[in-house]
């Protein structure tokens, strides 16, 4: 069974500083996608960044980057130069590349940005 | 290009009643997935529809049912509502083509309260 674990229910960061959110997952598959989604108080789930399992290079999107460790089944999100608008719930998610493409989500990390 | 929309925004129902939630998929998408997000939890996959057929189902009882229409919009129906059905219901649309599934884009959700 696929499971996604986020061990940090809450994190805080000073504005302009860097924060890392942790995620581990469990799967017996070798080819899959990993995602970080942001859910602000408006509730809409927004895709932040995506990683393909077969790609060794870590994905980067502007201030957001990941540290993907496939053997350790670890997928952390680093937010650089944190901004007030980054405050939200962050969910790590996994899905297979083939078959049903439903997402498996972790329980989320609430990020607070301190001015 | 219009995004994913959901209606209604909020809904209050009584235990034992039935409810229908609606989702309009993003232009060009042919697949709709529904998720239930209980308070303080990550979204849980309910089911997915592809070209008007159910294409995968999570661990939800049969009183959760759905439809997809020729224009790829979708409905989620829940019969015999229980208090535990109180949650945010998220719809996500995506494109499936040539055996590949592309990113899921989420709507703003419907907040269902069962009293």
Shape of chain B: globular
Q: Helix share of residues of chain B?
A: under 10%
- Percentage of helical residues of chain A? under 10%
Helix and strand pattern of chain A: EEEEEEEEEEEE
What best-fitting shape of chain A do the alpha-carbon axes yield?
Answer: globular
Multimeric organization? heterodimer
Describe this structure in words.
- By secondary structure, chain A is an all-beta fold.
- Chain A has no helices and 12 strands.
- In chain A, strands 2, 5, 6, 10, 11 and 12 form a 6-stranded mixed β-sheet that branches.
- In chain A, 32% of the residues are buried.
- Chain B has no helices and 13 strands.
- Chain B has strands at 5-7, 10-13, 19-24, 31-37, 44-50, 53-57, 64-68, 74-78, 87-94, 96-97, 100-101, 105-106, 110-114.
- The chains are: A mainly beta (115), B mainly beta (115).
- Chains A and B meet through strand 6, strand 10 and strand 11 of A and strand 4, strand 5, strand 9 and strand 12 of B.
Jot down its keywords:
heterodimer, A: 115 residues, mainly beta, 6-stranded mixed β-sheet, 4-stranded antiparallel β-sheet, 12 strands, 52% strand, globular, B: 115 residues, 13 strands
